[in-house]
Amino acid sequence: MKPIWNDTQEYDLKSGKYVKIWQGPQHPGVTGNMSLELLLEGDEIKWLKTHVGYLHRGFEKLMERRKFINCFPIVCRICVPEPDTNEYLFAAATEELSGIEIPERAKWIRALNLEMARLAATIMGLGGQAASFGLGTIGQWAVAHRDFLLDSFEELTGGRIYHMYMIPGGVRYDIPEGFAGRLEKTLVKIEKLISDIDKVMFNNAVFKSRAKGLGIIPKDWIEPFGITGTTARGSGVNYDVRKDHPYLVYDRLDFEVNVGTDGDVYERSLIRKEESLLSIRLIRQILSKMPKTGPVRTFIPDILHWKIPAGETYLKAESGRGEYGYYMVTDGSEYPRRVHVKGASYTHAMALLEKLGEGVTNADIFGLMVSLQTCPPEIER
User: Fold this and answer.
1) Where does 133-257 have alpha helices with state H?
2) pLDDT of residue 2
3) How far apart are CA 174 and CA 190, in angstroms?
4) Cβ neighbours of residue 294 under 8 Å, at least 6 residues apart?
5) Closest by alpha carbon to 229, among 171, 271, 289?
6) Which of 45, 121, 163, 213 could share a disulfide with 82, CB 3.0–4.6 Å?
């Protein structure tokens, strides 16, 4: 990375040719507080550096000082728009280390929860993508329809944003009577929303002219940068943890992974639109295939004095941003010895954005940031 300070020959801030500005930390381009340090020549970004540290952080060390059940209010805050992946992986890691098998119906309910969360996060991301290019109306549509899903989450889990529903042994309680029918009405509304977004955003000449060719990620960057999820699939990489390393009940669901070719902002947005429709199809499959009755929790020891045998494990899942992993080490005590969270945001919002941002105009950096679909607390965990 090139230095920007005025003692360098290339970027002399005293020359009047360049100007350094800060955007953020409340930046419109990313969900959460993150700041960009930009060096501009006119309207063109010559150099940029990301800065984090402006919000809640240090989750991994906090977990080492809390009993296992007390970690659940922490893990869901690692990514606010889609907290459920953290809940699932933390619960699944503790179950694997303690030798607990959850009931069959609980597996289906967990998959339902994860797809609902992915759908809520993806449609909000589409709204943010549109708003970053001046289509603010779509952003309002998306937030409103996400709220319809939050109504369903509140009915299912008791919470709108943080759910703390997937706990060791299964889920807190069963699906309410009539829930599937009420959720279906919301899915129909979201399908209509996506149709409207297709017309107003993807067929919009201004959006096409600004998004096509912006932030192209070559396919040979994927492995060196550690790019995953829809960001990688937009560049032609056919990889999805749900398909390649199935967990819960994904090996019993019928779906294909959406893959693009162009690798630019427009293609990544298009892939995420298709991901929204895929989540809707998966939710319907889960509701139709899951066992109609059965337990949703298995017995676990006294949760406040639960000692998990010494060991270590690494589990991964597909979040809306890409591959998500939890590495957990236990030492036989009532506390985790080590918890390490691996999310896509660290690479996407830092190393990748800093590389892609060079040469982009100041007006387009917002749209580029949103297209990488990052969550700053994942970086600061």
Assistant:
1) 136-157, 179-197, 205-211, 222-225, 229-233, 241-244
2) 47
3) 25
4) 103, 104, 105
5) 271
6) 121
Closest CA to 269 of 115, 128, 117: 128
Least confident of 6-15, 300-309, 319-328, 329-338: 6-15
Q: Which two tokens stand for residue 279?
A: 């989540």
Closest CA to 299 of 68, 84, 103: 103
Cβ(170)–Cβ(236) under 8 Å? no
Query: Which residues touch 150 (CB under 8 Å, ≥6 apart)?
Result: 120, 160, 161
d(Cα 365, Cα 49) in Å, to the nearest integer?
12
pLDDT at 13 over 80: no
Taken in order of first residue, the domains within the chain and their CATH numbers are 59-343 (1.10.645.10)
Amino acid letter, 314:
Y
Torsion over CA: 359, 361, 362, 364 (sign): negative
Reported as type and span, the H/E element at residue 345 is helix 345-346
Q: pLDDT, tens digit, for every residue of 338-353?
A: 999 988 888 888 888 8
Amino acid found at 150: L
Query: Can you tell me the distance from the alpha carbon of 115 to that of 314, in angstroms, rounded to the nearest whole number?
Result: 22
Return the pLDDT at 10: 67
142 Cβ contact list (under 8 Å, min separation 6): 123, 124, 126, 127, 128, 130, 193, 197
Residue 199 and residue 128: Cα distance in Å, rounded? 16
CA distance 175 to 63: 29
Quickly count: other Cβ atoms within 10 Å of residue 219's Cβ: 13
53-72 per-position pLDDT tens digit? 777 778 888 888 899 888 88
